[in-house]
Amino acid sequence: MKKKKKKRFAPLRFLLKTIIILAVICVVAVVCVISFDVLGLKSIQTGTLPYTDDELYVASGATFSENVVNILLIGVDYRDFEPTVRSDTMIVLSYDKTTAHTSLTSFMRDTCVYIPDLGYYDKLNAAYAYGDEALLVKTLNYNFDLNIKHYVTVDFSAMEQVVDALGGVTMDIAEEEVDEINRCLREQANLLSGEEQYLTSAGLQTLTGRQALGYCRVRNVGNSDWDRTSRQRKLLSAIAREVTTDLNPIKMVKLIRQVMPLTETNMDSDMIVELAKSYLSNKSTFFVEDFRIPFDDYVVDAYEFGGSYLYPDTLEDNVIKLHQNIYGIDTYEPSEKVQAISNEIYWMY
């Protein structure tokens, strides 16, 4: 009687089958995301930047990492019902696709910059008022040797819906911030529907969307707009923590579908899916750090022309530190264009 030969375990064949199965699953997942719009990408308000790199003043001489993508986040505030709307928040999100390392760089709205296409110096947030997203992108690239090509614009009041979709966000509220947040809540009660839930104490607590919006708008505590932008970055970092640690895939998709209709962007669905896949592949090394332009020790604060102006001191030094933070370049040399603008700003203060 012949003995039955035992079937040998072929690890290579098993590995190959596994890879094929995973590949099929990935293809099906991508098809579902795009074809059935699982993430609600079709509900995004689509914007465009119909310009070449040269027309956007993308810094041609700078060395940029192909792994890092810069996306301009623009928060606009319509509550004052002004005929022209200036950008209330301008943050460059720099995302490394190989590590998920993310940096948030706030650009102070009162920063004195040269506005290309208009041909004169003004506050940074004037660029959005006079030329929307396109001129703001051009201005940041022109003055800071950047390569921004994509943006996301959101009405600041949409922050309320984002936070509520997360079930609230945990923040540490200082004693002196409580009254100011409640003042902002009272102001919002006149503009937005719904009941206000006022803060009763300081300390670590979970804020509702309306309370988080009030927290972001506080500017009469601390160093005015400096601390206001710091609060905005803290809130965005807290939201990122909530999203990356507490949300399962089903809740994540639900959140994305709620947020998408509140935004306008020129990123296409392929790019959004690519970034989402990058995060899922590298979430173990994901972390967020934040910065502010002008940097604390490189600025002159002056009150003139009936308002506050922040003069980068010098613009060259700020650009060098910016590129150190985003790309890790310790020996970056600003372009001749930035050097010329830096010299002109120097003689303004």
Walk me through the structure.
By secondary structure, this protein is an alpha/beta fold. It has two domains: 41-156 and 229-241 and 250-346, 2-Layer Sandwich (Nucleotidyltransferase, domain 5), CATH 3.30.420; 160-224, no CATH class. Helices cover 42% and strands 21% of the residues. The protein is built from ten helices and 13 strands. It has helices at 11-35, 126-144, 158-165, 175-189, 209-217, 224-246, 249-259, 269-282, 315-327, 336-346, and strands spanning 45-46, 68-76, 87-96, 101-107, 112-115, 120-123, 150-155, 169-173, 203-207, 263-265, 287-293, 299-304, 307-312. The strands form four sheets. A seven-stranded mixed β-sheet has the order 1-10-7-2-3-4-11, with helices on both faces. Strand 5 (112-115) and strand 6 (120-123) form a beta hairpin. Helix 3 runs antiparallel to helix 7 (249-259), helix 4 crosses helix 5 (209-217) and helix 5 runs antiparallel to helix 6. Mean pLDDT is 81; it is low at 2-9 and 14-36.
